Amino acid sequence: MRIELSFVVLISIALAGCGPSSGNQGHGGPGGGMPPAAVSTMTVQPKTVLAPFEYTGQTAGSREVEVRARVRGILVSRNFTEGGTVKKGQSLYTIDRAPFEAALAKAEADLAGAQARLAQARRNVARLGPLHAESAVSQKDYDDAVSAETIGAADLKAVEARLLEARLDLAYARVEAPVSGIAGRSLPSEGTLISGPEVLLTRITQVDPIWVNFGIPDADRLMMRREAEAGRLVLPRDGRFEVRVQLADGQVYGRTGWLAFSDVRVSGSTGTSDARAVLPNAEGRLHPGQFVRVTLSGATRPGAVLVPQRAVLEGPQGKFVYVVDDKGTAQPRPVELGEWAGSDWIVTGGLKGGERVIIDGVMRIGPGSPVQATDVNAKPAAQAAQAAKQ
Question: pTM for the full model?
Answer without folding.
Answer: 0.67
